[in-house]
Amino acid sequence: MADFEFSAKKLPLKLFINNEYVDSKSDKKFSVYNPKDEKLVSDQVPCAGERDVDEAVAAAEAAFPAWRKVPAAERRDILMKFAALIEKHVEPLAELTRVTLGAPYSSFGKFEAGMAAEAFKYNAGWIDKFAGEAYPQENGFMQITRNEPLGVTAGIVPWNGPMGTVGLKAAPALATGNCFILKPSEKTPLAALALGPLIKEAGFPPGVFQVLSGDGSTGALLASHMRVRKVSFTGSIPTGKKIQKMAAESNLKRVTLELGGKSPAVVFDDCNLDNAVTWCVNALAANTGQVCFAATRVYVQEGIFDKFAEMYKAKLEERAKTIGDPDQQDTIMGPLVDEAQFKRVSGFIERGQSQGTILTGGKRVGDSGFFIEPTVFQNVNNDAEIYQQEIFGPVSILNSFKTEEEVMKKANATEYGLMAGVFTQDINKALRVASDFDSGMVGVNCVSMMFLNAPFGGSKQSGLGRECGRHALTAFTELKTIMVNMTYQ
Ligand code: NAD
Predict the structure, then answer these.
(1) Could you point out which of 154, 157, 285, 406 has its C-alpha 20 to 30 Å from the C-alpha of 166?
(2) How confident is the model over 433-452, as pLDDT tens digits?
(3) Predicted TM-score of the model (pTM)
(4) 258 is catalytic
């Protein structure tokens, strides 16, 4: 580490293949900008092409036979050391993300980079416990199952949680004995590119954990590669569909898809109002609304609707006062990630003015950088664009409802199913509603949260498969059944 500096200026803008930083064989480069002031951070980020991907896959294939046989305790120690190294460098890693994502350290940057370290620790703990099964003998035969690694695997990650998503994918892949190629987002690739020295120092053998920066074309090369056996993808629904198609049309590689959301929060008259408002505000404002499981459709029962609306508006306006330079310690809300996202979110807000009425927000903050106020629309019909589509910014819809039956129909009436929240003091109602949500995850008196030890993922078009917990390890392994003839002499 001595001669390596974690700074956007000193970072080697190279691919990390076979434990070395190497120049890309493709001339294609892309640029990254700081969303707080729109200034160029670098125009020299390499975009890995076909020959780079082939080289990384070949290195991973060469490393796989030995890596899968590394004893559990040794593999655990490597993952634990990697986690410790991330923790040691959490501030500079968060800074590398911040200069392109704009996420303030105190409110998101520290959490996001720290989550990667936690994911490595959590999965390291599973290595010697992720056992197969043995079945009762039958007619002199016994069957045992083993969780076999898949071989060369890849993680294609989005820009909104560049380090957290590395932890969610690389940690279970490596814990189960796979080799792993990381493809960060072209919008926020710098922290991933800085991992090279940490990967080496932790003790991962060459070819086991590699990083290829690139755009969608690099992702497509991985998703359609004949010798990549699994792609774990987090990103948008349209890209997720393309990846599933490429996987099917190439080698039927395994696919995990963590996609978009338009998550409902259902707030009943009998809830603790302060608690409900606090969760809904945090859900919308965290990472400037660029969170897949953000509660962006808030349904409040008639009896408390006016009070909720007043408190939600006031708290969001308080939060809007914390919008500012993400490099400042007291900033809680940073900018949107880039100009494209800013135009996208602003476009939804502009068109939304004819689809509903604005309770709060709706305006740009400042005249440089991509800062935007948390924005709430009321009286929106459920066929409106802002009601149906994921905006991926701090924009929500606030609606009232009369009955549980009515609200559950509305809550479930989208193609998304990532997260939902119910706020009530009635445990029977909470559990009934939790069961009725068409959603991979439900919060009771909370929303838009996750734990590393519990399954994370969506139903309907929000995804396929689960991350976190034991399920993530399952998703990176193939069950093998071994039948033992015990009567054979
Ligand atoms: P995106 O789909 O545009 O890109 C995600 C990644 O896929 C990037 O690394 C990109 O380079 C790559 N990619 C793009 N086109 C590709 C192609 N044709 N083949 C292979 N790879 C390709 O998504 P984004 O804009 O980076 O992220 C925002 C989306 O991610 C939102 O919809 C959000 O809800 C979703 N998301 C979901 C979760 C979850 O866990 N469910 C978490 C975070 C973000």
Answers:
(1) 285
(2) 999 999 999 999 999 999 99
(3) 0.96
(4) yes
